[in-house]
């Protein structure tokens, strides 16, 4: 799964690139540590990866708990102040930029977001509540989304509006997985 995430950054899968992106790309470093923490088996390894993930969280401002369900092809485009609720569910091939919040809500929309495949959420967008974001969706910068979004939609503005468009995220998703 880590190599699938690396592919989303580089278009290649190699050990050399893995080391390079781990040391020089904070977003990938967080994804790497998140995957290692989530898939560690022993208590000692869990504590080790949790410690490293916590340090990375403090230095990058990214808060994505290891228990969050995130499928392969996860890419943090720009790191910094990203918050994801642990009960959010994220599909394959997902881009997230800095300032994004995927949050839990109470009341009428009680719950956390479910994100489909091939989704790109741009800078400072907020998605809250028990909402479903379809496949091939682009959520534009500074959008506030608290409603279900159909497949292939482009969501803009605050309050958010849907602009129907075929596969809106296609220009923003690079190095798609097969």
Tell me briefly what this model is.
This protein is α/β, with parallel strands linked by helices and 178 residues long. It contains four helices and 15 strands. The strands form three sheets. The protein has a six-stranded mixed beta sheet with strand order 3-6-9-12-14-15. A five-stranded parallel beta sheet has the order 1-4-7-10-13.
- The residue-averaged pLDDT reads 91
Q: Roughly how much helix do the residues carry, as a percent range?
A: 25-40%
Radius of gyration: 16 Å
Question: What low-confidence regions span 5 or more consecutive residues with pLDDT below 50?
Answer: none
**Category from helices, strands and their pairing:** alpha/beta
Biggest sheet strand line-up: 3-6-9-12-14-15
Largest sheet: 6 strands, mixed
Task: Name the beta content range.
Answer: 15-25%
Output the number of helix runs. Answer: 4
Q: Care to count the β-strands?
A: 15
Gap between N and C termini, in Å?
Answer: 13 Å
State the order of secondary-structure elements, H for helix, E for strand. Answer: HHHHEEEEEEEEEEEEEEE
Shape: globular
């Amino acid at each position: 799964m880590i190599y699938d995430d690396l592919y989303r950054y580089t278009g290649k899968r190699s050990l050399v690139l893995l080391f390079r992106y781990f040391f020089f790309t904070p977003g990938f470093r967080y994804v790497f540590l998140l995957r290692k923490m989530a898939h560690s088996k022993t208590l000692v390894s869990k504590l080790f990866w949790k410690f490293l993930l916590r340090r990375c969280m403090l230095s990058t401002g990214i808060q994505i708990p290891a228990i969050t369900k995130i499928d392969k092809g996860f890419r943090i485009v720009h790191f910094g102040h990203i918050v994801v609720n642990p009960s959010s569910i994220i599909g394959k091939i997902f881009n997230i930029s800095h300032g994004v919040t995927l949050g839990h809500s109470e009341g009428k929309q009680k719950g956390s977001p479910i994100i489909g495949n091939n989704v790109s959420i741009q800078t400072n967008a907020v998605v809250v509540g028990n909402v479903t974001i379809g496949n091939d969706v682009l959520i534009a910068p500074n959008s506030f989304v608290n409603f279900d979004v159909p497949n292939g939609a482009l969501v803009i503005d605050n309050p958010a509006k849907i602009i129907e468009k075929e596969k809106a995220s296609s220009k923003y998703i690079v190095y798609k997985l097969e």
